[in-house]
Write a structure and sequence with these properties.
Length: 429
């Protein structure tokens, strides 16, 4: 039996959603453990497109339990909207299918207001956040003034917390950020109303998972964002506010490290980044536009155009170490079809020396120049290939280079957005 964690190795948007969806077939429970509705998974199933921001994409299967762990920050309005949309698509959403951790922190209207006002004030130094209030919500969690899902079931406590938080937030919003203040009563009314709708889903997720583990159920942990956006290990400060690395699955779901058996790192065949921050292999000319258009590289959450570049294996190798990757899933290999030459970044040149890890200093990182390994591309359509042996030789060489340089075997290759457009090399679950 193996419980698997799926993580992004790059700057998010690696196509984790599709792989998670695929692996869900062999799992009993799917768990989100960090991030919030800054994430967005686009899935194409049976020709229909679904976008999820909070509910694990496993909801598209019948009889799989989807769990939102304590490490997730939840915007209840977004969660309820997602539930409504799923119901419209005739997908069951009831407490038997979805659990929300009683300890998960809630995104409040003042978190969104702070996120937007701060970014506006920062001007050219802005992080390029998704503006969903993620950072301010995690700040309150750490500051110990956050509002948790359980508070929705205790109206007097909810009122007290919103009231005391608003005093501070309004002062900061108005006096420091020059933004509009917010009123207490409409927020309280709305959250009480949403609380009524959500309370049947609120539960102790750690206890639920423990029960499932004892019953030998298989659990799939679905990471959001990517390792390079990790608040500790990413390209700080141009990062998100949580830990998307595999280790966070334990703290963010309430299980022990001995329950994780396989860590699957998702590597998109090239690199993308949304928002601000240094990007060593960024392509600002024709090839970048080719990849951006062919890969439909627009943010699932904000619709922003993603910046595109060659595959940066320095970043991926960092992710191998930080997550303890057991295997790699390659996504969007088909997007590279048609390019004459491909480049893989194998090291960074920094002040005359080649280095193989990203430096912590942003100043040093800004001086890094990619060292490329050039490889010939392939022209054949690969979207119909279901067996690795039938891939064009040059595509195989590209994959072998990734595996060799990272030292990690490839278990899955995705050659198109659909569930069936996949080559399975090793059955993980
Ligand atoms: P935040 O998570 O909204 O605070 O945004 C912080 C940074 O993380 C910004 O550069 C965002 O564009 C980036 N980010 C957050 N979530 C995702 C994601 O799911 N995919 C890609 N980038 C993300």
């Amino acid at each position: 039996m193996s419980n698997t964690v799926v993580v992004g190795t790059q700057w998010g948007d690696e196509g984790k959603g599709k792989i998670v969806d695929l692996l869900t077939a062999g799992a009993d429970l799917v768990v989100r453990f960090q991030g919030g509705n800054n994430a967005g998974h686009t899935l194409v199933v049976g020709g229909r497109q679904y976008i999820f921001h909070i509910i694990p994409s496993g909801i598209l299967y019948k009889n799989k339990k989807c769990i939102i762990g304590n490490g997730v920050v939840v915007d209840p309005e977004v969660l309820l909207k997602e539930m409504e949309d799923l119901k419209k698509a005739e997908i069951d959403v009831d407490p038997g299918r979805v659990s929300l951790s009683d300890r998960a922190h809630l995104i409040m209207p003042y978190h969104r207001a702070l996120d937007l006002a701060r970014e506006a004030k920062k001007g050219k130094n802005k992080i390029g956040t998704t503006g969903r209030g993620i950072g301010p919500c995690y700040e309150d969690k750490i500051k110990r003034t956050g509002i948790r899902a359980i508070d929705l079931t205790e109206p007097d406590i909810l009122e007290e917390k919103i009231s005391s938080n608003l005093k501070e937030k309004n002062f900061y919003l108005h006096e420091f950020l020059g933004a509009e203040t917010l009123e207490m009563q409409p927020i309280l009314d709305k959250y009480l109303d949403m609380g009524e709708k959500l309370s049947p889903f609120i539960t102790d997720v750690s206890v639920e998972l423990d029960r499932a583990l004892k019953a030998d159920k298989k659990i799939l942990f679905e990471g959001a964002q990517g390792t390079q956006l990790d608040v500790d290990h990413g390209t700080y400060p141009f990062v998100t506010s949580s830990n998307p690395v595999a280790g966070a699955a334990c703290a963010g779901a309430g299980i022990g490290p001995n329950q994780l058996h396989h860590v699957l790192g998702i590597v998109k065949a090239y690199t993308t980044r949304v928002g601000a921050g240094l990007f060593v292999t960024e392509l600002e000319e024709e090839t970048g536009d080719f990849i951006q258009e062919k890969g439909k590289e627009f943010g699932a959450t904000t619709g922003r155009k993603r910046r595109c570049g060659w595959l940066d294996l320095v970043a991926v190798r960092d992710a191998v170490r930080l997550n303890g990757l057991s295997s790699i899933g390659i996504t969007k290999l088909d997007v590279l079809t048609g390019l004459k030459t491909l480049k893989i970044c194998v090291g960074y040149e920094l002040e005359g020396q080649v280095i193989y890890q990203r430096p912590a200093s942003l100043r040093q990182f800004s001086k890094c120049v990619p060292v490329y390994k050039e490889m010939p591309g392939w022209q054949e359509d690969i979207t119909q290939v279901r067996d690795a042996d039938r891939l064009p030789v040059r595509a195989m060489e590209y994959l072998e280079a990734i595996s060799e340089i990272t030292g990690v075997p490839i278990s899955i290759i995705s050659v198109g957005p659909g569930r069936e457009e996949t080559i399975i090399i090793k059955d993980i679950l």
